[in-house]
Amino acid sequence: MVAAGLTAGCTADSARPGRHAPTAAATPKPVVPKPVAPTGRHQAGIALPQPAQGNLLAVVADLGATAAPGPLLAELGQAIRTLAAGTDPRLLGLPPGDLTVTVGVGPRLVRAAGAALPGAVDLPRFSRERIAARARGGDLLIQICASDPLLLPVVAAALLDQAGDRVHERWRQSARRGANVPVADGRTAPRNPLGFIDGIVGPHTTAEQQRDLWLAGPAAVAGGTLAVLRRMELDLSRFAALSVAEQEAVFGRHRASGAPLSGGTIASTPELGAKTPDGRYLVPADAHVRRANPTVVGAGLMLRRSYSTDEPAPGLLFISFQNDLRTFTATLAHMDVSDALLRFTTTTASATFLMLPGFDRKHPLGCRLFG
Ligand code: HEM
Question: From atom 12 of ligand 1, which residue's Cα is the shortest distance away?
Answer without folding.
Answer: 198
